[in-house]
Description:
mainly alpha
Amino acid sequence: AHFLFQEFRVGASNGDLSAIxxxxxxxxxxxxxxxxxxxSILVELADLLSERFIEEGRKEDLDELITLxxxxxxxxxxxxxxxxxxxxxxxxxxxxxxxxxNSMVDLEKIISLRRVTLExxxxxxxxxxxxxxxxxxxxxxxxxxxxxxxxxxxxxxxTASQLCPLGxxxxxxxxxxxxxxxxxxxxx
Length: 188
């Protein structure tokens, strides 16, 4: 399938993106669930839809690519490092949809996904996942004003700051977040 996508793209112009997407959908439709190439087709099709979404801003493309990225991530074992990359890409797409639509359902999915990502991340590399989860909890706090969200965000950022040695750039990011979250909590 990858070969077909690449061969078709080589001679294709920008106007052919829809035709390439149709080809990808057809390939996916005729690929059995257990086929070893199904994951690749899901990823390729999601990438094509992402490209068209960037060019044209079609919400339905974003919705479909989120569905495809979620399905693709399920083909990757929990201990495979590619799973974190796949989850991060899904997170980015969900956040884009949340940013444009402000849907609490998407924010809840983002929070759940970031919890999973944090659990899969080894201890010394947890600073960014801690910040990401804290940021999403802070966003939910700003909407729902749930004190438990801001308190958890504060704990996560504090934990992230403890992982960073003095002078590390992530330490400064943790301190900025800590100040912002404390200010928000005091105002509440």
